[in-house]
Amino acid sequence: MDDLVLCRHGESETAAAGVVGGDAALTVIGRAQASELGRALAERPFDVCFTSPALRARQTAELALEGRDVPQAVLPDLADIDFGAFTSGPLHEYRAWIAAHGPAEAPPGGESRVATLRRFCRAYRALLGRAESHLLVIAHGLTLSALNDDPPQPSVAGVPYGSSLALSRAELTAAVARLERWCEAPAW
Fold it and tell me: How confident is the model at residue 63 (pLDDT cuts 50, 70, 90)?
């Protein structure tokens, strides 16, 4: 891998309703965001596209790459955080919970932020090991903010749907190393 562009999926039906998690399709707005993402990336070459298993990420990839011959594959470690008992509930309740608990604590039946970020690091390391030069990745807001925020933050509210982050191999390597260090002594 020489470089990658990491993108957040378009708005989903559950996100528009203010609901946590689920595997909902894109809204009309989300489909437009995915198409706009495709226009913004039209001049960039991609050898392969990896997505989260989530329907919203796969639909975003299909729309963003429409008319292009770019193979697509699901990378399971890019899956969204497991919200546990908060799944299908109001987003504001999950955000209040995460802000009141340490990053190593998991919601009932769910995944801690530390466990999620360790999983993302496995995905990032797998991407760094790819033979292809130019990668496109479409996943979730936390996959972008985890690489950009130092230290990671409890909320990803500032990552717009359909946004992207371009990183060189060296930049991704440094960001992953920083994130792995944070996971050893996590704190908000």
Answer: very high
Q: Tell me, what's the pLDDT at 166?
A: 98
Q: Which residue in this structure is represented by tokens 């990420």?
A: 57
SS (H, E, C) 93-152: HHHHHHHHCCCCCCCCCCCCHHHHHHHHHHHHHHHHCCCCCEEEEEECHHHHHHHHCCCC
Q: Where are the domains of the chain?
A: 3-184
Tokens representing 60? Answer: 């975003």
Model pTM greater than 0.90? yes
| Contact (CB, 8 A) for 55 and 31 | no
Tell whether the model's pLDDT for residue 83 goes beyond 80.
yes
Task: For residue 51, give the H/E element and its range.
Answer: strand 48-51
Are 129 and 51 contacting, i.e. CB atoms less than 8 angstroms apart?
Answer: no
Report which DSSP code applies to 54.
Answer: S
For 3-184, CATH gives 3.40.50.1240
Average pLDDT, the chain: 96
Beta-bridge partners for 95: none
**Which structure tokens are listed for 136?**
């496109």
Kind and range of the H or E run holding 59? helix 55-64
